[in-house]
Design a protein that fits this description.
The protein folds into two domains: 201 residues, Quinone Oxidoreductase, Chain A, domain 1 (Alpha-Beta Complex); 108 residues, Rossmann fold (3-Layer(aba) Sandwich). It has nine helices and 16 strands. Helix 4 packs across helix 5. The longest helix is centred in the middle third of the chain and has 13 residues. It catalyses: a primary alcohol + NAD(+) = an aldehyde + NADH + H(+); a secondary alcohol + NAD(+) = a ketone + NADH + H(+). Belongs to the zinc-containing alcohol dehydrogenase family. Class-IV subfamily.
C-alpha cells in the first residue's frame, strides 16, 4: 500500500485531561514496528471503561491520551515478524491479548496472557516503550494497547482477532469488548445448566449480554437487578423474566447459594471481605476478563455466532453518530441513555 512504512496523518479524538471534552485533532501515526499492525479503524463504539478512565476518578490519570478499545477495522500495514495478518484483513482489536506462547495462552482455562494481558496504566507500546502517536512531535499516550478513537492506530498483533470479511464491521465491532465479556461470563464461566435460575446485577450492555448468554444456555428464570426500574422494559428483549430493584427491599438480595461471577474493572482502592462460611455453604465466587475468551482463537467464532443468527448484536446498538460527534456518545453514556453508540469514522 502507498502508505506502508510512512507516517500517516489522520484525525483522532484526544483526551487532554480528565473529564474534559475530547478534542478532534490531527495526529501523526508512526508505521508499525516488529510484531505490530497498523489498522484503519472504520467503526468504534464507546464502552463504559473508556468513560471510567477518561474521568480518572479511581484510576491513574494518563494524559494526553487516545482512548477507545471497542472497534472494527482493516489492516493497513504490518510490521516485521507479522505473518498471520496481511493488508486488507478485517480485524477486531481487543484490550487484552493472546501471544499463543505463554503458559496462560497454552492452557484451556486462562486467557490472561503473560505478555499482553490488560494494562490500564501503560500508555506506550510494549516493544520499545514508545508511543506511535504524536502531535507536532510530542507523544500522545495509548490506551489498553488499542486506542481506537483514531482513524488509524497501531496495535500488537496479539491483540487483533482476524474475522470473517463478510461480517458487517458496524455491527460486530461491539463484540470486541462488552458484548463478548458479558456473554462469556455466563457461557464460559458461570456455565448455568438448562433450567437454572440466573440473576444479573446491573443491566448495562455487559449485564444484558450476560442475560443473552443465560437465555442461550436455557435458564428458566432470569432475574434482572438494577436501581433503575426503567431498565426492565429493555431487559425483557434480552430474556429477563423478573425484575428486582434493591431499593424496594430491606433484606439483602444475594441470599442463597450458587456461583457468582465478577465482571468489570474495579476502583483502584476497591476491596471486599466475606466470611469463609459463605464458601463452605456451597457458594462459589469467580472472576473473568473478556468472558474468558482468548481473543485470536475464540473471537472469530463469536462473530460466526452472529453470522449464523444465533446471537443478535443489533439490539445492543441503540445510537449511531459520526466520529466528529464523539462527545455526544459520552453524554449519552453519562446520562445512562441507550446501550452502545457506534461512531462512523469516515464522517
Amino acid at each position: 500500500m502507498a502508505t506502508a512504512g510512512k507516517v500517516i496523518k489522520c484525525k483522532a479524538a484526544v483526551a487532554w485531561e480528565a473529564g474534559k471534552p475530547l478534542s478532534i485533532e490531527e495526529v501523526e501515526v508512526a508505521p508499525p514496528q516488529a510484531m505490530e499492525v497498523r489498522v484503519k479503524i472504520l467503526y468504534t463504539a464507546l464502552c463504559h471503561t473508556d468513560v471510567y478512565f477518561w474521568e480518572a476518578k479511581g484510576q491513574t490519570p494518563v494524559f494526553p491520551r487516545i482512548l477507545g478499545h471497542e472497534a472494527g477495522g482493516i489492516v493497513e500495514s504490518v510490521g516485521e515478524g507479522v505473518t498471520e495478518l496481511v493488508p486488507g484483513d478485517h480485524v477486531l482489536p481487543v484490550f487484552t491479548g493472546e501471544c499463543k506462547d505463554c503458559a496462560h495462552c497454552k492452557s484451556e482455562e486462562s486467557n490472561l496472557c503473560d505478555l499482553l494481558r490488560i494494562n490500564v496504566d501503560r500508555g506506550v507500546m510494549i516493544g520499545d516503550g514508545q508511543s506511535r502517536f504524536t502531535i507536532s512531535g510530542k507523544p500522545i499516550f495509548h490506551f489498553v494497547g488499542t486506542s481506537t478513537f483514531s482513524e488509524y492506530t497501531v496495535i500488537h498483533v496479539g491483540c487483533l482477532a482476524k474475522i470473517n470479511p463478510s461480517a458487517p464491521l458496524d455491527k460486530v465491532c461491539v463484540l470486541s469488548c462488552g458484548i463478548s465479556t458479558g456473554l462469556g461470563a455466563t457461557l464460559n464461566v458461570a456455565k448455568p445448566k438448562k433450567g437454572s435460575t440466573v440473576a444479573i446485577f446491573g443491566l448495562g450492555a455487559v449485564g444484558l449480554a450476560a442475560m443473552e448468554g443465560a437465555k442461550m444456555a436455557g435458564a428458566s428464570r432470569i432475574i434482572g437487578v438494577d436501581l433503575n426500574p426503567a431498565k426492565y422494559e429493555q431487559a425483557k428483549k434480552f430474556g429477563c423474566t423478573d425484575f428486582v430493584n434493591p431499593m424496594d427491599h430491606t433484606k439483602p438480595l444475594q441470599e442463597g447459594w450458587g456461583v457468582a461471577v465478577l465482571v468489570g474493572v474495579p476502583h483502584k482502592e476497591a476491596v471486599f471481605k466475606t466470611h469463609p462460611m459463605n464458601f463452605l455453604n456451597e457458594r462459589t465466587l469467580k472472576g473473568t476478563f473478556f468472558g474468558n475468551y482468548k481473543p485470536r482463537t475464540d473471537l472469530p467464532e463469536v462473530v460466526e455466532m452472529y453470522m449464523r443468527k444465533e446471537l443478535d448484536v443489533e439490539k445492543f446498538i441503540t445510537h449511531s453518530v459520526p466520529f466528529s460527534q464523539i462527545n455526544t456518545a459520552f453524554d449519552l453514556m453519562l446520562k445512562g441513555e441507550g446501550l452502545r453508540c457506534v461512531m462512523r469514522m469516515d464522517e
